[in-house]
Amino acid sequence: MAKDKLDEFYENLDKEYGKSNTDKNVDYVMSLIKQRLLPDGTVDDNIPVPSLQSVAEVMVIMTERPNLTFEEFCEKDRSHKRVIEYLFIRARNHYDEVEGLIKQLLGKSFKGLTPKIVFAFLKIWRQFNSEYKPSSFMKVVLFPEKAKEIIDTLHFLINGEIGKNAATVMFVARDEGLISSCKYEDIKDEFPSIHQKAYNKELSQLDMGERETFFRPTRTALRTRIGYTKKEDGRIEFTGTSLSPINMLYQIWRWVLSLF
User: Fold this and answer.
1) Helix (H) and strand (E) counts in the chain
2) pLDDT tens per residue, range 11-38
3) pLDDT tens digit sequence for 96-120
4) pLDDT-wise least confident of 18-32, 134-148, 196-210, 218-232
């Protein structure tokens, strides 16, 4: 890969890879996860370690041909499918093991593979594994088709708060009907900065008395940023109804969580 081509790849990672084919690749990986679901709801991640040669081939394909989806090159070579399963399914519970295998390639020599390609691949792989594995908080989100908008807005409003303000945002979100629970044990994975003792203390206070004036700014912010109105009968109507690929992933993830 020529230097200018590699530089272009780095500069356009989001545009050429993340925005175009990542959504298709997420769908493909989720379809592979579905195929490996066991009766007890767990995922069979007992996937044989692929050869370094096969992993190197996948790295080169992904970096030199970013417009080619996982499914397209896996259909042509079953060994590539095994690599994808190992890299993106095995890694869910064995992250260090898989990362260690990838790093082994830094000291190996395979056709078309360079250290820069290995680092480029690591960037893609880490991004995929960090962004596309929603937390258990998805269990309480009542509208998975709008999950990204809801979760992003809650993060924006909480903004690192550990007690009173965090409790207020979550309490109002539950009262609005966006989430089914605001208990600490249900939100802690998604919002690790929240302090359990301070949060629970404030949450118990919010259950006492009418505080609409106090809640109104948070309620307005939720409705404005997420984009919805609430009818007199309590129904929520979103202004944007199209289902984005990431929210489709959240729907699938919520279904997976429901099996546990």
Assistant:
1) 13, 2
2) 444 444 344 466 777 778 878 888 888 7
3) 899 999 999 988 888 888 888 888 7
4) 18-32
Closest residue by Cα to residue 223 from 236, 235, 232, 234: 236
173 vs 154: CA distance, rounded Å: 8
What three-state secondary structure class fits 196?
helix
66 closest CA partner among 129, 126, 24, 110: 24
Rounded CA gap, 24 and 4, in Å?
Answer: 27
Q: What is the DSSP string of 206-233?
A: HTSS--HHHHHHHHHHHHHHHTEEE-TT
Distance CA 125, CA 25 (A): 12
Question: Average pLDDT, stretch 153-173?
Answer: 85
Q: What is the mean pLDDT of residues 208-215?
A: 66
Minimum mean pLDDT among 72-81, 200-209, 218-227: which range?
200-209
Contact between 66 and 21 (Cβ < 8 Å): yes
Identity at 242, one-letter amino acid code? S
What per-residue confidence (pLDDT) applies to 180?
92
Long-range CB pairs of 203-211, under 8 A, 24+ apart, other chains included: 203/167, 203/170, 203/171, 206/167, 206/168, 206/171
Cα–Cα nearest to 110, from 119, 99, 118: 118
Question: Phi, psi (5° rounding) for residue 237?
Answer: -125, 115
- Asked if 247 contacts 27 with a C-beta cutoff of 8 angstroms, the reply is no
- Return the amino acid letter for 42: T
